[in-house]
Amino acid sequence: MSDQKNTAQQHLLQILRNEDIFQGFSDQTLEQLVQQVKYSRFHAQQHILKQQQIVQDIYILLSGTLQIGWLQNNGELIVNDYIRRQSVFNFVAVLQQKPLNYDYFAATHVEVAIISGATFLAVLQRDSQALWNVVQSLSRRMYLMFEHNRYLRTATLEQRIARHLVRLYEQYGCRQEIPLKLSQQEFAESFNISRQTLNKHLQQFVQTQVIAWNYGQIVILDLERLRRMSELDE
């Protein structure tokens, strides 16, 4: 049991050292945080965090894939995105003490680490370097959000689909075959369009051999062309 705990802590330390909001934290501080961490496991389709919930603690994805969206009253989940990158996924809401904008579900078996929000904020109050690094991280995220909004307003549907496919490819460790089964309905919900509209555009990707789509399994056949297709016209 002790060896498993040490392995989990070392894995979490590596994630935190690569996470931008923790870059200003000293190794000593990170090790102190990790000593107080709680770990939770979730089965596929299990609800992890709920929309409008105010969460006091910081959740970090250790393994598995998160499904993010809005759970409807009829029990249907409108999928907005997937997260597989091992990182913090509720940081802004914790910092602002605001309700979550999304429902978070486990798309596969998921493991998370939970850091006390009060402990994290206490570090920021006494460590100016850590606080400054968090401010820089938030400013970068805000800039990227503005850029993303501009892209959504100006890109064609074909460009948006291509960019989403590139992002999925990058999220899943640059594997040609994306190890995530998606129905066309689930994929269409990411763009707020009908399955029929999506299918019409996907056929262009398939017929030109940019991707293959077989029973919900996506295979990237021509990544460079897909990246070019995702770029805004000059």
UniProtKB/TrEMBL annotation:
InterPro entries linked to this entry: cNMP-bd_dom, cNMP-bd_dom_sf, Env_Response_Regulators, HTH_CRP, RmlC-like_jellyroll, WH-like_DNA-bd_sf, WH_DNA-bd_sf
Source superkingdom: Bacteria
Entry's Gene Ontology molecular function annotations: DNA binding; DNA-binding transcription factor activity
PROSITE patterns attached to this UniProt entry: CNMP_BINDING_3 (PS50042), HTH_CRP_2 (PS51063)
Chain ranges of the Cyclic nucleotide-binding domain: 21-141
SMART domains linked: HTH_CRP (SM00419)
Keywords, comma-separated and alphabetical: DNA-binding, Transcription, Transcription regulation
Gene3D superfamilies for the chain: Jelly Rolls, Winged helix-like DNA-binding domain superfamily/Winged helix DNA-binding domain
Cleaved signal peptide residues: none
A cellular-component GO term for this protein: cytosol
Location of the HTH crp-type domain: 155-224
One Pfam assignment: cNMP_binding
Designated name of the protein: Crp/Fnr family transcriptional regulator
Organism field: Acinetobacter amyesii
Species lineage: Bacteria, Pseudomonadati, Pseudomonadota, Gammaproteobacteria, Moraxellales
